Amino acid sequence: MLKELKKLVYEANMELPNRKLVTYTWGNVSGIDRKEGLIVIKPSGVNYEELKPEDMVVLDLNGKPVEGKYKPSSDTATHIELYKAFKEVGGIIHTHSPWATAWAQAGRSIPSYGTTHADYFYGAIPCARSLTDEEINTEYEKNTGLVIVETVGDTNPMNIPGILCANHGPFAWGKDAAEAVHNAVVLEEVAKIAFHTETLNPKESHISQTLLDKHYLRKHGKNSYYGQ
Amino acid sequence: MLKELKKLVYEANMELPNRKLVTYTWGNVSGIDRKEGLIVIKPSGVNYEELKPEDMVVLDLNGKPVEGKYKPSSDTATHIELYKAFKEVGGIIHTHSPWATAWAQAGRSIPSYGTTHADYFYGAIPCARSLTDEEINTEYEKNTGLVIVETVGDTNPMNIPGILCANHGPFAWGKDAAEAVHNAVVLEEVAKIAFHTETLNPKESHISQTLLDKHYLRKHGKNSYYGQ
Amino acid sequence: MLKELKKLVYEANMELPNRKLVTYTWGNVSGIDRKEGLIVIKPSGVNYEELKPEDMVVLDLNGKPVEGKYKPSSDTATHIELYKAFKEVGGIIHTHSPWATAWAQAGRSIPSYGTTHADYFYGAIPCARSLTDEEINTEYEKNTGLVIVETVGDTNPMNIPGILCANHGPFAWGKDAAEAVHNAVVLEEVAKIAFHTETLNPKESHISQTLLDKHYLRKHGKNSYYGQ
Amino acid sequence: MLKELKKLVYEANMELPNRKLVTYTWGNVSGIDRKEGLIVIKPSGVNYEELKPEDMVVLDLNGKPVEGKYKPSSDTATHIELYKAFKEVGGIIHTHSPWATAWAQAGRSIPSYGTTHADYFYGAIPCARSLTDEEINTEYEKNTGLVIVETVGDTNPMNIPGILCANHGPFAWGKDAAEAVHNAVVLEEVAKIAFHTETLNPKESHISQTLLDKHYLRKHGKNSYYGQ
């Protein structure tokens, strides 16, 4: 069942230790089959060294398990809300990658300080607001997704394919699971460089709107000219 | 003698270089057989590259050597005090892992700034007070243990399975040697992220009690739902 | 065609992931055959894992493709301006290496704080000015090159073989592609050490002119005595 | 000739890339045969990947070459001054390891902030004064050695087996080449932890004299009890 998607989601999950985005099991990647309306996600708390493609869990968009011997990631309800709200998204990732998590813990959005950022994120990477006590105590993971959706608002989620959750860590997404991981790697790198930028020049480092446009649009959209 | 425990303690010690928690021989892990009242610990100053399971040293809770050709870790008396005071603890680790040691040298507890911390430590990771000159000059290693026990106080040691010793470094523990090492790896990662959090937002980054509860209790205790 | 140069440029490009100067495809190296007036450069957006010597693209100094199945690096026009202005230069590199990029994003030149810097760069590594909106909107990559040339001015480009572009990242060069990469590795290391120097002593850390002279000139020029 | 010493010095040099103390050729280790009055040192500017035991250069204490096809390290005259002044020293190392170099560039001694430091260095790791212009312009490398000797003064060099040279980088030493490298690795680690300690607590982090004594003396001298 969904053999190809399971393989893709498995491989995307295995990129997390390879790219040093996770310590132990602190991350999860999912992918969606839009036609079938089914999600494939990493099982909860299983070590990457033991993970196999067939361990991936299949659920529907109500969170109902469809196939798999394991319980899905404890963050599954967050993924589901994002898939429901963001129709363009085909893959989602959550990690506690250390630089992005530092910004999330500081409750700060990552300003666009340069072209490394602008090549992927068309503006600041926002930090979503803290959840209220009630949102935490009832359906915490689902509400995490809803607050992300609230923060993204009218922005096209593909233009800024990542976000920070206050006191928590980053989520990122893409057209499929592999692109979601790619964007999470970039988010971590951008978070690191932005940290050092601020230390070197605490006042004025923002990229101009013109340079932001130039770099984002030379890689994305109909007039892009980067790549083959 | 205690062949299985020696193997576990050996493997836990070998995780230290693998996880980059130690430079040279700057760390030690022990485990206890509660039924026999015997401790197994790394020998003092032996290189990890040369370490073998049979090199592990066996002692009783009075520090009396029971088996082994080597002298035990010079920190053995600290381990013993912790085993005597914390009945739930089955494994203990001491390292000079660099981020945790920076906090220890700064004499500061690590505040709970996010869910990465809350998933493992149910509150700030305390920094124990400095030893008095007299405590240093008489039975230094034993007194290090006693000051840790004093700092933990009435807290269940399993709820915050690690501590910093002022101007020294971290100790961590768990239900066995492997879990102790796991908690030491997390402590180091949490120390690193907290450092960067403070630089990004020196004023207000603390996690709310509600989110701390949510994350700690979704992984620990009778209503936990993380993992399989 | 230019088989030897393609091999050198290919190998220089492969040093980027080896030396951890790039994430994904964020870098490019070129080399020039001055006699033929031809440039060899990495193709745009091709993964390093898949890159082969024969994938290198050959162009003339007007940017006209001469050989190769791929499109050249999107930064080719910048390389061309540098080759046209700096006759001594035989190889050029652009990366987003994180420490150098932090300085570039901060809009700051890297002061010469020590002999590590002085061994390679005979003075501060300058940060070129931001491009005007018009320069960005018309022939951005070419204008990036022209602003670098403007910044270098009358300085011999071989004496300070690297530069930062504001809100962007570093360029470096050398007598060939291999030396360009070597200088980019040094620039990244120097950027890292200078960052920490400033934190430790925000006021006065500059190297004296005499020590700068001593170290630069013991490695470069007719009285050099470093190496074999 | 001095085959055993050449092998030891070669192996000590190879630890530099292994322990990540050097970029390219930025380091050198030497050893001395006190009976013969001969020094063995790395050749200048030779890549570590190509280095062989027989490439080591042999000199006498006047710097006169005795054997070897290569020119010795350009820092040889510094090594010689240290061997002449410090009779207990059997091996010397110089690197540009990044954390120690940051302190050197900042012109600051590394205070003893904890037991990691105290286990090896019996007090602050000093930063030697800058050389005068005249000292730089005449016999620079020899004068670097003389200023180190001046800074160490009446201290037993084995009690604090390392130093920083202002705007330059660290030197370290030991009873042989292997111990010198070991001490340089520790110096780098201590420099890193001290950097982060100061950021976390800019005011008061110093280790007490009693704890410094305890840790240094449990590893060194006649009452030591660390190790086998």
Give a brief description.
The first copy, chain A, has 8 helices and 8 strands, in the order H-E-E-E-E-H-E-H-H-E-H-H-E-E-H-H. With 228 residues, chain A is α+β, with helices and mostly antiparallel strands. In chain A, helix 2 packs parallel to helix 6 (140-152) and helix 3 crosses helix 7 (177-200).
Largest chain-chain contact? Answer: A-B, 33 and 29 residues
Please identify the top-level CATH class of chain A.
Alpha Beta
Helix content of chain A: 25-40%
- Average pLDDT value of chain A? 96
Multimeric organization = homotetramer
CATH superfamily of chain A: Class II aldolase/adducin N-terminal domain
Q: In the CATH classification, which architecture of chain A applies?
A: 3-Layer(aba) Sandwich
Distance between the termini of chain A: 34 Å
Note the total helix count of chain A: 8
Number of strands of chain A: 8
Please trace the helix and strand order of chain A, writing H or E for each element: HEEEEHEHHEHHEEHH
Radius of gyration of chain A: 17 Å
CATH topology of chain A: L-fuculose-1-phosphate Aldolase
Number of domains of chain A: 1
Biggest sheet record of chain A:
8 strands, mixed
Tell me about this structure:
4 copies of one chain form a homotetramer. The first copy, chain A, is α+β, with helices and mostly antiparallel strands and 228 residues long. Chain A has a single domain, classed as 3-Layer(aba) Sandwich (L-fuculose-1-phosphate Aldolase), CATH 3.40.225. In chain A, 40% of the residues lie in helices and 15% in strands. Chain A is built from 8 helices and 8 strands. Chain A has an 8-stranded mixed β-sheet with strand order 4-3-2-1-5-8-7-6, sandwiched between helices. In chain A, a hairpin with a 4-residue loop joins strand 3 and strand 4. In chain A, 53% of the residues are buried. Chains A and B meet through helix 3, helix 5 and helix 7 of A and helix 7 and helix 8 of B.
